[in-house]
């Protein structure tokens, strides 16, 4: 057992000696070209000229490296597919400079018997892009991207802040930043992100009359008598007179935002729509002389002689004429004539009662009849007897003015009780002057 173990030891020692001899032989041989390291990691290829690994530009070597609307961006050891709106600041190729043998770890340099940190940023021994900020760290350095960018590999890629819904309404991404925009009717608040309503009415909204601000917009409204135009801003006058012919009794006059009624000469406005005849005889606005009597008619006045009695009649009172019985010519004429005046409107509806005749005195047993003695040659009127002492003058046909009628309305009285004196008959007349006005009111 002991011999066997010794034999094993001898055998192991022999193997160790052989290996040692072989290693010594191999180390002592000079290196050949095939022993140089020429393999690179994925995304790089060996450059025989510089004897370094060089980045492969996959965007050029791979057909259609990015699909759809994506754009290919090459970077060290690979490539990126980013939206076409993305902004990329390419990194420059790191310079290859020969270095001397440094016994200190990477990022340090010897200083006496110790190793101190190298500030690559101060020495500009860094590969940061011009747009990046070099920040020294212990034994190394970092490249920091500007605000609004994020670092992918050695490149700075724009951050699309609009993806994070920073804006209340609309977000517009720009390289390295973003801006918020508001819908029409709103403006940016002080935080440049929120949107607040704009009071267009205080900012010169194009309303021609009234402006009402609402959330995000405004409304135009018009005063009474106006209507909003098709553009929603202008106010157009409403022609009320064109809507109806019954707004005014005589004539409607349209005015901006309203209308007014006017009356013809000789009338005055009563209220806002009706026309009332002016009684010039009461107001004194007439030109009648002292020997004349002023008679008011529709829209005007008439001056008549105070004494209208004609031969053989004589005046016994202001409006009454009498034919004396002692004159033979009076036997066939009405005993008395009373003058009266009236006016009617044009186109009055017919038949129309216009004047009532009333006997002032009647003898006992007398029988009275009424008739139109003269003045109605065209048959525009007729008499309707009511009873023994009264009758009604009726307008039979519509008449237009201005026009004047003078009718003698006669009451004939027959009294049988006075038959001892013969066939006793007497009459009296009412001379009625009728003025037809030019208007229908």
TrEMBL record:
GO biological process, one term: epithelial cell differentiation
SMART domains: EGF, EGF_CA
Molecular function GO labels: calcium ion binding
This protein's UniProt keywords: Calcium, Disulfide bond, EGF-like domain, Extracellular matrix, Glycoprotein, Repeat, Secreted, Signal
Gene3D superfamilies registered for this protein in UniProt: Laminin
Record's subcellular location: Secreted, Extracellular space, Extracellular matrix
Pfam family, one: cEGF
PROSITE patterns linked to this entry: ASX_HYDROXYL (PS00010), EGF_2 (PS01186), EGF_3 (PS50026), EGF_CA (PS01187)
GO annotations of cellular component type: extracellular matrix
Domain spans labelled EGF-like: 117-157, 158-196, 237-276
Domain of life: Eukaryota
Record's signal peptide: 1-28
SUPFAM superfamilies, per database record: Growth factor receptor domain
Recorded family membership: Belongs to the fibulin family.
PANTHER family in the record: EGF-CONTAINING FIBULIN-LIKE EXTRACELLULAR MATRIX PROTEIN 2, EGF-LIKE DOMAIN-CONTAINING PROTEIN
Protein name: EGF containing fibulin extracellular matrix protein 2a
């Amino acid at each position: 057992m002991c011999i066997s173990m010794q034999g094993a030891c001898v055998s192991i020692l022999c193997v160790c000696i052989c290996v040692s001899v072989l290693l010594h032989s191999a180390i002592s041989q000079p290196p050949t070209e095939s022993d140089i390291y020429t393999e690179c990691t994925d995304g790089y290829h060996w450059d025989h000229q510089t004897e370094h690994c060089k980045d492969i530009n996959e965007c050029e070597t791979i057909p259609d490296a990015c699909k759809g609307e994506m754009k290919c961006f090459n970077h060290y050891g690979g490539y990126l597919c980013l939206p076409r709106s993305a902004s990329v600041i390419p990194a420059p190729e790191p310079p290859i400079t020969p270095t001397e043998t440094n016994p200190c770890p990477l990022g340090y340099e010897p200083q006496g018997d110790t190793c101190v940190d190298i500030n690559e940023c101060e020495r500009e021994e860094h590969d940061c892009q011009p747009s990046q900020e070099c920040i020294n760290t212990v034994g190394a350095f970092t490249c920091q991207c500007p605000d609004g960018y994020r670092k992918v590999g050695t490149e700075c890629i724009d951050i699309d802040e609009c993806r994070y819904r920073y804006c209340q309404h609309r977000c517009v991404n720009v390289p390295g930043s973003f801006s918020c925009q508001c819908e029409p009717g709103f403006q940016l608040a002080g935080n440049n992100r929120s949107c607040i309503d704009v009071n267009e009415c205080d900012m010169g909204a194009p309303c021609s009359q009234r402006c009402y601000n609402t959330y995000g917009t405004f409304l135009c409204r018009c005063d009474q008598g106006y209507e909003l135009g098709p553009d929603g801003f202008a106010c157009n006058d409403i022609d009320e007179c064109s809507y109806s012919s019954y707004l005014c009794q005589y004539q409607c006059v349209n005015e901006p935002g309203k209308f007014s009624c006017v009356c013809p000469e000789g009338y005055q406005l009563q209220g806002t729509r009706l026309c009332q005849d002016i009684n010039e005889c009461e107001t004194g606005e007439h030109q009648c002389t002292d020997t004349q009597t002023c008679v008011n008619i529709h829209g005007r006045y008439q001056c008549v002689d105070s004494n209208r009695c004609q031969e053989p009649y004589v005046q016994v009172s202001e409006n009454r004429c009498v034919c004396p019985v002692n004159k033979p010519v009076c036997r066939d004429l009405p005993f008395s004539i009373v003058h009266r005046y009236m006016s009617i409107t044009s186109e009055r509806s017919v038949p129309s009662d216009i004047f009532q005749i009333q006997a002032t005195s009647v003898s006992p047993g007398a029988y009275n009849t009424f008739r139109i003695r003269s003045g109605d040659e065209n048959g525009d009127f007729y008499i309707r007897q009511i009873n023994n002492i009264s009758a009604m003058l009726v307008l039979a046909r519509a008449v237009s003015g201005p026009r004047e009628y003078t009718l003698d309305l006669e009451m004939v009285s027959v009294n049988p009780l006075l038959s001892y004196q013969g066939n006793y008959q007497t009459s009296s007349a009412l001379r009625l002057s009728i003025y037809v006005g030019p208007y229908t009111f």
